[in-house]
Design goal:
- The chain is α/β, with parallel strands linked by helices and 595 residues long.
- 33% of the residues lie in helices and 15% in strands.
- It contains 18 helices and 17 strands.
- Helix 11 links the parallel strand 13 and strand 14.
- Helix 8 crosses helix 10 (331-346) and helix 8 (269-294) crosses helix 14 (431-445).
- The longest helix is centred in the middle third of the chain and has 26 residues, at 269-294.
- The chain is globular.
Length: 595
């Protein structure tokens, strides 16, 4: 521990703590722009400048990268510091468009907030524009380099957090810009559409493609029957857009708001998450049984396929592992297929007139909805016609003048609405694994787990490992199934390389079942969720999902009576012929750069 003073207030902090972090301990907020808790600080903006004095020294320093030293006497705010920060903001604004009213980040822009905090009303510097074109070649994300303030967050996210390397800086000085690698269109780059660049961008330089106009058109078309589904993670994040704390479970008010918007039928993706577990769990059991019988592990481990950004990454970077990938579609796509192939007929509707909308925490879901012809399995156009993000839904609710906070609670429609606790935890890292373990154990043993809370896969550790006894003899000497859970793409390579090395060496696989989610914390912090998601927020959103699970009447997917009804009336059996036609897909190797 080291003793320092901040604005005359003594404070003790751990050695190595930055001045920025130490200031928070004495309730002092130092302004920042390039800094984000998810990323290593790199002091590019200069707004966090402070005055430090130690024994025999006095200097200016950037608070985000300066470690506290014994005896430091730090001043965070004085007239000179404030004037310097103001000048930095004015210089950034001189190279930034002033079309705030048309910007997708209007009202949630960190630069806009700083300009307001410093009371900037006039521009002392000549405005310089590079007239850079918008890149809208990507199906999920739009890049507007003219708005880039060169804070570097998106580059660090893409390269260091996600290990994708689709974004970089090109050029120098005032002519520098953010662009995709090799200055290719973003839609032709290695981008996996995860949207973490957009989630971390402090301004409107990167944002999700806005598809709300298409949804409005469908809602206003008397010839269509608009149907909607909401993903697990949406229910614990949307409330933040209306002033409530992160993690507030908002499910039944979301159902009500969707009906107010004009959707005629409201389903819940949690139901198809239960369906996914039945398909994926059965697939796992079949592979494990085959492995036990043959002693060969060429298709083990089974790797989950619910995250479309991860699917894109795997097809580009690890195509040799396609045989290990679960063929089960994601819950979004299973729901889309069931709406048009099963529910439409049950409701007496022409599936061609059903317009299927999904509300997702993820920008990659926009791409997934139309990723290949397997997503037309119901034979009525795309199974999911359009996917919008949590942020887009919030805008629609506000545009419609719906006072969502005061709506009465409503339920989802049946039979594709009711869900179990296993379905709801799909939205958090480890949730798919935990849900699968609950049902796979039952499928093998015909017994329920004594404790369905599988806590070893919970939390924000980048890679989590555990064992569970399914009662299947593996290579004749153990019945323990080794599992791994990885989230945040930068953590994935270590797991996959370990599997790949064992495969090449002809050794027993290090794991039997692997869950991967592209975003840190899982879908709760997907690229389309409300801005400002850091670990504290991720934990609160995850807590909300676990509480929803805890309160559920049924905690395991195989216990959902409506899931059983769907199999009895329509699908037959998990992994059966009809299930494969509608609920499974294939993968193909994709080039890093399209030509």
């Amino acid at each position: 521990m080291v003793s320092i003073k901040i604005n005359g207030v003594p404070v003790e902090v751990e050695e190595g703590t930055t001045v920025l972090e130490a200031a928070k301990k004495v309730n002092v907020k130092i302004p920042t722009l390039c800094h984000n808790p998810d990323l290593p600080p790199w002091a590019s903006c200069g707004i966090c400048i402070v005055r430090t004095a130690g024994p025999g020294s006095a200097r200016m320093a950037r608070a985000c990268t300066t470690p506290c030293e014994k005896g430091m006497d730090i001043v965070t705010h004085d007239p000179e510091l404030i004037a310097t920060r103001r000048t930095v903001v004015e210089l950034i604004l001189s190279n930034h468009p002033s079309d705030c009213l048309q910007c997708p980040r209007n009202g949630s822009c960190e630069l806009q907030t700083l300009a307001a905090d410093f009371g900037i009303r006039e521009m002392p510097f000549k405005r310089i524009s590079n007239n850079l074109p918008i890149d809208d070649s990507n199906p999920s994300i739009v890049l507007n380099p003219e708005k880039c303030i060169r804070c570097g967050r998106c580059v660090k996210v893409c390269q260091e957090m996600q290990n994708v390397w689709a974004l970089e800086f090109l050029g120098r000085g005032i002519k520098g810009k953010i662009a995709s690698a090799a200055d290719a269109p973003l839609g032709e780059s290695p981008c996996i559409k995860c949207g973490q660049c957009a989630a971390h961008c402090p301004v409107g330089a990167i944002y999700e493609r806005d598809d709300t106009a298409k949804v409005w058109a469908a809602l206003q078309n008397p010839e269509t029957h608009p149907v909607v589904q909401i993903a697990p993670a949406v229910r614990v994040a949307l409330a933040e857009e209306f002033g409530l704390p992160p993690g507030t479970v908002f499910t039944k008010k979301i159902y009500a708001a969707l009906r107010r918007l004009g959707f005629k039928t409201v389903f819940d993706t949690n139901f198809s998450a239960d369906l996914t577990i039945m398909e994926e769990g059965t697939e796992l059991v079949k592979r494990l049984t085959a492995m036990a019988a043959s002693g060969r592990g060429s298709v083990i481990p089974l790797i989950t396929s619910c995250c479309p950004a991860w699917v894109d990454y795997m097809e580009k970077y690890y195509a040799d592992m396609i045989p290990n990938f679960s063929t089960a579609k994601s819950p979004q796509q299973m729901m889309g297929a069931m709406i048009k192939a099963y529910w439409a007929g049950k409701a007496g509707l022409d599936p061609q007139k059903v317009y299927s909308v999904s509300v997702m925490p993820c920008t990659a879901k926009k791409w997934e909805a139309h990723r290949n012809d397997d997503m037309k399995s119901a034979g009525a156009g795309w199974d999911v016609d359009i996917a919008i993000t949590t942020r887009e839904l919030a805008r629609m609710i506000k545009q419609a003048g719906i006072d969502i906070l005061n709506l009465s609670d409503e339920d989802a429609d049946s039979p594709l609405g009711p869900y179990t606790g296993a379905g709801t935890i799909f939205g958090v890292t480890g949730g798919v694994m935990e849900a699968a373990v609950r049902s796979a154990y039952y499928l093998v043993t015909k017994k329920e787990l004594a404790d369905v809370n599988f806590k070893p896969v919970r939390g924000l550790e980048g890679v989590k490992e555990a064992e569970v006894d399914f009662g299947i003899a593996i290579n004749g000497n153990t019945t323990k199934i080794r599992i791994a859970v990885a989230h945040q793409m930068g953590n994935i390579a270590a797991v996959l390389d370990k599997i790949r090395a064992a495969q090449k060496a002809g050794q027993e696989p290090p794991y039997h079942f692997v869950e991967v989610m592209a975003c840190r914390g899982g879908c709760v912090s997907g690229g389309g969720q409300p801005y400002g998601c850091v670990d504290d927020v991720r934990s609160l959103r995850a807590k909300g999902l676990y509480e929803d699970d805890q309160k559920s009447s049924y905690r395991c997917s195989h216990q959902n009576p409506f899931i059983n009804q769907v199999y009895q009336e329509f699908l037959g059996e998990p992994n059966g012929h009809k299930a494969h036609e509608l609920l499974h897909t294939m993968y193909t190797e994709r080039p890093l750069y399209l030509k």
